[in-house]
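note to self — DONT lose this again. spent like an hour looking for the file last time. sequence + predicted structure for the chain T wanted, 143 res
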Amino acid sequence: MNRIVTSFCLLLLTATTVLAGECAQGNCRNGFGTYIWHDGSTFTGSFVNGKPDGEGKYVDPGGRKFHILYVDGEPVTSTPVTPEEEAIEHRHKEAERYNEAGLLYLQKKEYESAIFFFNKAITYWPDNPNYLRNYHLAKERKP
């Protein structure tokens, strides 16, 4: 009888954890993903057996961002994301958008436009080797 009760409690605990939110993107079972709890907080990082496990980013319900380390679903350490880190992240996202636009123009063989967008990407993220490589590729292919 005790085994049945214990099994039921474990099942209930697991179901409660699963129902506490949802995987919004990626693989929140065994992989990399973003999980959103019902209070609006999120974790983006690695998951093992359906639990956060490893380094990632946590955003609390108030929108504050933290670097966090989970071990087997339990938070171990967290440090706030600084405004400087947020600014860098924003610049990197902008750079990626410009690089993607450059790749589209490169596929269309519109090299002048590709060069323009790759150059913009480099402006936002100067030391990204992919953007530099794409820029030089477009320059080489330009007639």
